[in-house]
Amino acid sequence: MKGIKKIGIYSNEGKVKIEDKYSFEVINVQEWKIDLLPLQLLDQAEEAPVKWKTRFWLYKGNIFVTTQKILRLEQVHLLILEEFDKEREYFERLMRKHSYGEDHQTYTRIRIPEAVRIEVWRRDGGKCAICGSRENLEYDHIIPVSKGGSNTARNIELLCEKHNRSKGAKIG
To answer: Pairing relation of β-strands 156-160 and 137-141?
Structure first.
């Protein structure tokens, strides 16, 4: 029982991009390209999942469709949050898998707790806090651990690799 499926993304201007073949069978895509999403819904969808059309939901730049007809509102919200977190988990797993070769010297640092990573990912919408990119995302300590920073959501943000590297160990 999955109940929800991500089918596309939308921009801050309300423009829609369909990424999933399934959606072509469900709706008239031409109609979507003509109709921009209402900006009021986009603001609301940054905080919590928002119903857009009969079976379509918006959340933090993503479009979801319910695949089951009988779902309570609370169930839809939970399924969307779970689907949203899967993207974060997927990229974290890839980073662990491909980040360093065997000859790389490592040092021990306390890992950012999963609950904090989830909170930061949701708060930042799964995109770079500076440029909004969804590519090569990394968790960044606003106050570096080396300068006394903590592993709390208040001290961590999502940055793309470019912005995280340009920041280095600077505060802010």
So the answer is: antiparallel
